[in-house]
Structures are given as structure tokens and as C-alpha cells.
Amino acid sequence: MPKKILLSLCLALSLHASSVLNPDTNSNLGEVSADELKSEGDKIFGKGNVILVSGEYYVSAQDLVYDKKSKIAEVEGEVRIYYGKDLMLSAKKVKLDFGKDSFSLSSVYFQSVKSGLWITASEARSENNVYYFKESVVSGCNIQSPIWHFDSSSGSLDQENDYLTLWNTRIYLGKMPILYVPYLSVSTAQKRKSGLLYPRLAYLNQDGLYYQQPIYIAPYDSWDMTLSPQIRTSRGIGISGEFRLATPSDNLFTFQTRYFYNTKKYMQTYSALNQHIYGFNLDFETKDGTGIFSSFENIHDGFYSSLNYMNDMEYLKLDDSDVKVSNRLSVSKLNYFLHSQEHFFGIYDKLFLDVTKTNNSNTFQLLPGVQYHKFFDSLFWKELMYSIDVQTNNVTRERGYAYVENTIELPIGVEFPLFNNYLSIGVSTDLKFSNINLYHTEEIQVYNPNDKSTTANFFTANYNASLSTDLARDYGSFMHSIQLMAKASGPYYRYNTPLFNDEVYEWYAKTYADIDTTTNEGKRQVYNLWNPSSIVDFDTNKHRLELQFSQYFYSPDGHTLFYYNASQKLNLQSKKYLFSESMVNEFGSSPIDGLDIKTSLYYSFLYNDIEEVSATIDLEKWHLDTSIGYYYKKLFASENASIDANFLNFSLSNDFGYFAIGGDVNFDFLAMQVKDWSVSISTDVQCFGITLKFAQEYGSILTDNPNRPIETYTNNYIKLEFRLAPLGETGVSYRFRK
User: Fold this and answer.
1) Which of 32, 39, 29, 33 is CA-nearest to residue 18?
2) Cα 492 from chain centroid?
3) How many CB atoms lie within 10 A of CB 553?
4) What is the mean pLDDT of each run of 10 residues along the chain (738 residues)?
5) What is the pairing mode between strands 223-232 and 236-246?
6) Are residues 599 and 581 in contact, defined by beta-carbon separation less than 8 angstroms?
7) Which of 182, 184, 185, 203 is nearest to 194 (CA)?
8) Shortest CA distance to 407 belongs to which of 395, 423, 420?
9) CB 630 within 8 A of CB 615
């Protein structure tokens, strides 16, 4: 740092030049050389090419006068201070007071080697490692013609804490002033510092002027927090907070919370559901080797939590209006696990929150689940393998029936090669027992109303037999691998109590189809309807034959020239529904670096129609980054079919050197309209960057209208971002909804 640079020169004096003197060893100056050196009384004079050296630091000037009694040195004539080859400071005149650890300068130029930031000022002084200057220019760009710079009447630079403070600042782009700031304080280093972060500023046609000012607090290395009050002039006010704590084991604990108050006028205008929007997020995870049993070599344990709650989906957009909510289901988890080489034990809690619902009281929650698992191990002889899995899950909810499920699974199998490893045969059995204990059954609807039992059992013994081969051959110019597998499976013994009879599954499917789920009464009937398939999937207990085929072609340098995977599951219990599941086809290619082509096609032989298609082409090469994707989904219900999704995504960006252009578009063929799109143009020139973005996206809001609880809107916005190296980035946006 500059103070330390200058003070490091305060060493025992050693003179060497065209003439050499032997001054008092208490002179406190340093190693000095000059064209002419002389000593008169308590003063040392140097003229012509004066050099002061200490380690990697040195000062060059034309004239030097040093008073050994007052310990003040005056250096004049193009004074420059270097660290190695880097120029750190230059001035016309420097006055160094070694007794007070301070100095003053005139017509000064200073540059920070760490950040690249430079300052010029008419005059400056230093006290306790802080520069104070007047009439300054600050920038991180080329000094000859800076793209951006700050003109200030006065300011200071704290070298120890890496803080730049400016008063009466005019911010320029080139020679054009764009903003006046009476007070500005920024960090010049990319490290944790308490203070104001860059604000978020936007104009939203529904919310008005949006301003959020993050306040960062970092008193200790182990924890920090951010408080972010905000105002939306046509909507209301709010505040967000984030607390982060690092434990001695370097595990990170994070807690976030947000609150926003909607004005009555906003509530009435847009029929918003909640006047008070609030929620929280709590995350904590222990790293491997930092658990309770970390001192044991063969035992590992850990803790994971991700708890989330919100009363409105708008909670997700309070801190960033650009956030697009794509997943309506929020899952909270609270887990603990303990395992060794052979055993695993876990405790799980899962809470499901549908952010589009006004009430989640009828949503199933896992509170808690307990699991013991014995990893695969040999039984009696090496090829015979087995494992054990035991679980108890309490699946509960506020409204509707709930249950406790106890399951035991015991797979036992053997696999061995044939014909010198050209074939592999496997035989196994899966034993599974499930016990269900129902509670909160006051309003439950079952297939047989006279059946009042609250306990149900299900036991299956399934067989699995497989024959597979995995072959590969190198042809020199390419390598070819092929995998084939045929697997037969199904139940050879099944026992169940009446709640899991076949007719109960059929009854549920028919009853559910007849219920109008858009009405409150229909919704009540659904969550009270006994659904056996949510516990035991009846389809998995059928005799099946699964056929798989895969082949890959590789180039000598390891690229995937082409691959094709196909699989088909056949229902052997029903001739009519032999092809009840669609055939899966996957193929693609990655012939060169940066190019990836993937396609999947699901074809239903039962309906003689395509069920699902997805295709993507990604290219990231040279300065081009582009992607095109297509997705199609059809739903089959008996003889009726409906298209559920049919859309195309396309994105393209290219860096031309001086500037970059990017954009993306999402076209919905069902609505025959463009849904989401964006276009951006940006440029980055060393110290400065700017991005201009135009975009449209679709969003949702909860309303107080029971007939339309979710309202869809179109969100259009223009966003302008500035990047000022090394100070950071900020931006403004204009957003309006339809």
C-alpha cells in the first residue's frame, strides 16, 4: 500500500552515485542515488535522476532535499513511485514527513495495481494510509481517453479498507455528463465490505417507480447480512433480508425473508389476493466429513435442510422483477443421514407447497419418513446378491385422509457371464410388503362404503430375468459399440386386502373422471377419494417384457458420431393393451466440440400415433452460441386425444468483437402466437460495458376471484445495464404489463 511503500524507504542510508556521502545512520531515508549528491549540515541535496530504492519499490524524481533533523523530504520534478514495473503514483511535488507517517502531493496521479483504478487530482495528502484529494478525476479506463470517468470536487481513498469516497460527483460517458451524485462511496476491491450496494432501479407501469437499496453488513468473516428496503410508488413498500453464517467446519447457513405491503388502491385495481406478501427460505447443508461422527473413519453422516414458505407466488419476484416462475411446486426438505460401507440410515421430512393455490391444507406432506437400507452384498456365494430396504412414512395433511406406510423390500438376484463374456444372464426376485394405517378417515370415500377398515396390506413377489450383451469393436477410423437386453418381469405371487383390489383401481379412475374439479365441492370430493395408485402402482405388478437396444459410433478423438437407443415395454397380461406403453427412441450426435444434437420420440402402437417429441440442437463454437428446441406432447384418454404442448424455442448470440447480439424466442403452436422473446445488444471494452435488452414474457398472479384464481399477464420490458470496471455494474429498466 502507498503508505507502506513510502515508509519502507525509511531504512538505513546508503549513498551511491557519481559522488558518494556517508551520512548519519539515523537519517531514516533509504537507498539513494542521483547525478549529484551533497550534504550540508542536517540536509542532504540530490539533483538529476534521483532514485530512492527499497526492495521492489522505488521513487524517481529530479530533485531531493532531505532534512535529517525534521525527517522531512521534499521531492520535485516528475515524481514517480513504482512497484516492480507498475507505476503506482506520480506527482509534480511530494513532501514526505517520516516523523508523522504522512505526505502531501501536488498535481498527483495515483493508480491501484490491484484494481486498475486511477486518480488524478490537483493536490493530495496522506494520513494513516488514507489519501485525501481535491479536484479529482477517477476512472478504470485508458488515461488518454477514458470511456467513463468521475469528476469530483473532493474525495478520499482508504488503501487499507479499499474504499473510494467522492463528493459532488459528475459521471461521464466520454465527454457527456449523464448523472450527478452528491455523495458516492464504493469498494475498489472484490471482497466483503459493509456499505451500500448498487441499487436496483426500474419503472413498472403497474407498480410505478421501483427502487431497492441493498445495505450490506459484514462485521465478521464468519457471517454477513443484507437488508434491502424497497418502494414501488404505485403499489407499496417492502423489505428483504438475507443472513449468511459459515460454521467453523465451513458449512454455510442461509436465511432469507421478504415482506411487501400492497396498497388498498393496488388491491382494488388488480384484484390481488394478498395485501401482505411474505415468506422465508432457510438452507443448511453439512459437507462430507463435517458431521457428528466425523471423527469415525468408516462412518459418515450429514444434515440437509431447505425450508421454504410463501403465501403468494409474487414473493418470488419481490427482489427481482425479471424472475420467471416456471415451477409452481415448492418442496421443503429436512433430512439427516448416517451411513457406512454396508448400511444406510436416514430421516426425511418433505413439505409440498403449490404456489398457485390459495390453500394447501389438502396437500399430502411427509412428516417424517425413516429409512434403513442394507447395500448390495453377497449371500452364501459371490454371485448371489441381496439388499434390504425398510421404510416408515407418515403421509399427512390438514384436510382429507392421511396414512402411515410401512414397507419392507428384499431383492435377491444372481448374474453371471456366458460364452466368454459375450452374454450375461441375470435372475432375481423382489419381495415387497406394504402395510397402510389410515387416519382422519371421517369423510373418506371408498369403493365399498360398508368397509370401515383403516388398515390395508399389500404383498408382492416379483421375478426378473434378463439376457444382455455388450459388444465393442475398433475399426480404426471409428469405434462401434452395441448393447442388447431383454428383461422379463412380473408378479408370481400377490396378496392384498380389499382396499387394494383390482376393482378399486378401476373405481377410482372412473369416479375421478366424473368429478368436476373446478368447483369447491368437486375439489372436496377429490381429496377425500381413496386413491390406491398413489401408494402402490398397480401397473408395476403386471407381467412385462422389456426390450432395449443401443448403439454408439465414436471417432478416434472420442466424439460421439451417432447414437441410437430404443426401448419398448410389452404388457404380457393383456393382448389388447400389449403396447400400453409407448416405444422410446433416442438418437443424437456430437461430432465436433461445441455441437450437440439430441432427439427423442415416443410412439404409441396402441393409438398408432406419436405421444411425445423433443429435439434440441446446441452449438457453442467460435463466438457463436445458439440453440433450437422443439417439444410436442399429446395426451391419450381412451379413444380421445388432445395436444397438451406444442412449442418451439430458439436462441442465438454472437460476439463480433466490438459488440455482441443475442436473443431468444418461444413460439406456441397451440395459441399460434409468440409467448416469450428477448433481443439484446451489448459491448464490453476493457473498463466499460453496456447492454440494452428488449423482452416479453408471460407471468401469473393470484387473484381474489374464485372463478379465476390465477390471472395471466404479458410482461414487456426494456432494460439498460452498465458495467464500470472495477467498480461493478448497475442498470435501469422500464416494465409494463398487459
Assistant:
1) 33
2) 47
3) 18
4) 33 31 46 84 86 74 85 83 73 73 65 75 79 88 86 86 86 87 77 78 85 90 93 95 91 95 93 92 86 81 93 86 73 93 94 84 92 92 92 94 96 91 94 94 87 90 95 94 96 91 88 80 82 79 92 95 97 88 96 95 93 96 93 82 90 89 92 89 86 83 66 79 78 72
5) antiparallel
6) no
7) 185
8) 395
9) yes
Q: Which residue has the cell 395426451?
A: 635
Single-letter amino acid code for the residue at 577:
Y
Q: Which three cell numbers stand for residue 735?
A: 416494465
Specify the long-range contacts of residues 436-441, CB closer than 8 Å, at least 24 apart.
Answer: 436/403, 436/404, 436/405, 436/406, 436/499, 436/535, 437/403, 437/404, 437/406, 438/401, 438/402, 438/403, 439/401, 439/402, 439/403, 439/404, 440/396, 440/397, 440/400, 440/401, 440/402, 441/401
CA distances from 478 to 71, 559, 587, 598 (A): 79, 10, 18, 20
318 vs 229: CA distance, rounded Å: 11
In 140-199, which ranges are E strands? 148-158, 163-173, 176-187, 195-196
DSSP bridge partners of 244? 224, 254
Q: How far is Cα 313 from Cα 216, in angstroms, rounded to an integer?
A: 26
DSSP 3-state assignment of 73? strand
Phi first, then psi: what are they for 255, rounded to 5°? -130, 125
d(CA 341, CA 180): 65
Neighbours of 671 (CB within 10 A): 10
Give the burial class of 19: count Cβ atoms within 10 A of its Cβ; 0-12 exposed, 13-18 middle, 19 or more buried. Answer: exposed
Cell of 564: 441410437
Phi, psi angle pair for 498, to nearest 5°: -55, -30
Question: Under a CB-based contact definition with an 8 Å cutoff, are residues 168 and 182 in contact?
Answer: yes
Secondary structure class of 581 (helix, strand, coil):
coil
Question: Coil, strand or helix: which one is 507?
Answer: helix
Interatomic CA distance for residues 119 and 159, integer angstroms = 13
Does residue 726 have a cis bond before it (omega within 30 degrees)?
yes
Listed in order, the ranges of the chain carrying CATH 2.60.450.10 are 2-183
Coil, strand, or helix at residue 458? strand
Report which residue type is found at 581.
Answer: E
The answer to whether 321 and 202 have CB atoms below 8 angstroms apart is: yes
Q: Which CATH architecture has domain 2-183?
A: Sandwich (2.60)
CA angle at residue 617 from 622 to 558, to 5 degrees? 70
Cα-only R_g, the chain: 36
In 3-state terms, what secondary structure has residue 541? helix
Are 720 and 731 in contact by the 8 Å Cβ rule? The answer is: yes
Distance in angstroms (rounded) separating the CA atoms of residues 369 and 346: 8
Inter-CA distances, 312 with 274, 278, 318, 557, Å: 7, 7, 11, 52
Q: Is 475 exposed, middle or buried (0-12, 13-18, 19+ CB in 10 A)?
A: exposed
C-alpha cell at 146: 477514458
**Residue type for position 600:** S
| List of residues 6+ apart from 500 with CB closer than 8 A | 456, 457, 458, 532, 536
